[in-house]
Amino acid sequence: MVTAGIVLAAGDGSRLGGRAKALLPHRGRPLLHSVVDALEQGGCDRTIVVTGAYADEVAAACPPGTTPVYNSRWEIGMSTSLRCGVDAAAGADVIALTVVDFPGINAELVHAILSAHEPGTVTLPVFGERPGHPVVFDLVDAVAAAQQARGDEGARSFLSRNRDRVRQLDCAGLADPGDIDTVGDLHRLD
Fold this sequence. Notes:
By secondary structure, the chain is of the alpha/beta class. It has one domain (3-175): Spore Coat Polysaccharide Biosynthesis Protein SpsA, Chain A, CATH 3.90.550. The chain has helices at residues 31-42, 55-61, 78-88, 107-116, 139-148, 156-161, and strands at residues 3-8, 25-26, 29-30, 46-51, 67-70, 94-99, 122-127, 130-131, 135-138, 166-170. Helix 1 packs across helix 4 and helix 3 runs antiparallel to helix 5 (139-148). The relative contact order is 0.19.
């Protein structure tokens, strides 16, 4: 079984004042590195980073061995990044999908979700009542989610239509699920 991690990092950070979230400083290096490390140390065999608004800068910041993929349609929303990432993951059996603005991600969380995943299901981490990342799909389901996604919704539509196959995994004690959307969220990088 080959597991590919996909990091969605194509946005322009407009709510953050127009900054590349992937390049925000986190523990002495770009946030992107923390996210990629968590995926790889947690069990992903390869990692794909979907770039867009700050493509050159984010691609240059990708850790060695990471595959940057440029989404030329990033302005349409997360759906196009999901499609780019899933297309680039062809040949994988399992996909672990996450966003780049999740500083709480760690190897223990990724390992727990990958270990709990069962073929034919989608594994969704939940933190209390809040769904989070990474979401784990079989490749066939990731392809279907990417095909169904529109605008800035990502896999939400697929998850809603397939509730009977979504297995929620309580991850409340494994990570802080907060993401970074606005300047007020930057404290999460500490």
